[in-house]
Amino acid sequence: MVVPMFNEGSGIRKFLDGELFEEIRRLEGATGGEARYEIETVLVDDGSTDKTIERVRSTELFREREKKGLVRLVAFSKNFGKEVALAAGIRYATGEAVVMIDADGQHPAEAISEMIKRWEKGAKVVTAVRKHNRTKHRVGSWMFYKMMKMAGNKEIVEGAMDFRLIDREVAEEYNKFTEHNRITRGLINWLGYPQEFIKVEIKGREAGRGTYDFPKLMRLAGDSFVSMSRTPLVFFGVLGLIITSFSLLLGLFILIQQYILRDPLGLDWSGAVAMSVFISFLVGLVMISQSITALYISQIHIEAKNRPLYVVDREKSEGIYEKGR
Ligand code: UDP
Ligand code: MG
Fold first, then answer.
1. Nearest to residue 48, comparing CAs of 185, 218, 208?
2. Are 258 and 267 in contact (CB under 8 A)?
3. How far apart are CA 315 and CA 135, in angstroms?
4. What is the separation, in whole angstroms, between the first and last Cα of the chain?
5. Domain range list for the chain
6. Distance between CA 197 and CA 216 in Å, rounded?
7. Predicted structure pTM score
8. Residues 6+ apart with CB under 8 A from 166
9. CATH code, 2-213
């Protein structure tokens, strides 16, 4: 199980020792039934500036897992973002299947058994989909999905969450991705393994606050808009072509109508009006296409530098150098 955490100090104990530990005990057969699974917990601290790490270390789950050698704590040197935290968690995880789950208690841990059941029946990817869209960014998220679909991002499924199980095979393929700008679910969908979906009830945050504020969401939307598709580029190319041919024809028409035929239709074009309308229209278009091009270039720039995806703080980490990487 991979758990990304960023400044979750206020609710992390409740989540780890509550729901998650309960589910782990159930799966390991500690609360009756036969022990069929061994659950390794990979906790990724994404550069928290609060007491997340200390709190994690003081949990019953951590101490019990540590004794059994079933815990890894990957502490980043700074905040690299949730998607990168997940990537690291998946890299360090060694299990036959990897489940990623948020640390804020919004993903119902009791759904993991169901995911595992599906996995045992052969599913390579099991994704949780929210039953009701109760996010406070409802309009924004709806627009985001519409925009993504329009931009040709077939990989994005509406309502799908980063609460999912992937098979070892999928995890290995996932580990080959090197891009920095990543949307985990988009990449996993891109891999093309058939998916099963289970409906879960998403809960409110147990403590702390969501870290995706509006500017961050806008950036995420912008990045994902260009990171998965060339459609925006093609779209503005075609639009530019249509507008150019259209204005060429219109210009010819005005020229012939007004100056060669001496305005038989009596339209009495004012050249200045026509010009200013056209110019402002075209300037707008040029600016839009420029900004889109710039988005692509900025992404190429980031990827071209090819920096490491994250940096691990070894002192703060635990249990990651014996096995794993
Ligand atoms: N998270 C993270 N790094 C970040 C932001 C968030 O690891 O920079 C973690 C966070 O601790 C939580 C999960 O990612 O476990 C989802 O974050 P959040 O609840 O803020 O997002 P939302 O629920 O709005 O998708
Ligand atoms: Mg959340």
1. 208
2. yes
3. 37
4. 17
5. 2-213, 231-305
6. 27
7. 0.78
8. 90, 97, 98, 100, 124, 125, 174, 188
9. 3.90.550.10
AA letter at 47: G
Tokens 């990957």 belong to which residue?
Answer: 74
CB 147 within 8 A of CB 217: no
Strand partners of residue 318:
73
| CA of 215 relative to ligand 2 center, distance in Å | 16
Ligand 1 proximity of 167 Cβ (cutoff 6 Å): no
Residues 156-211: tens digit of each pLDDT: 667 778 899 999 999 999 999 998 888 888 899 899 999 999 999 887 776 666 66
Q: 11: which 2 tokens? A: 């609710």
State both tokens at 157. Answer: 């499924």
Joined together, the tokens standing for residue 181 give: 């700008």
Spatial distance between the Cα atoms of 323 and 311, rounded to a whole number of angstroms: 18
Ligand 1 pocket: which of 2, 6, 49, 213 to mutate (most atoms within 8 A of CB): 6
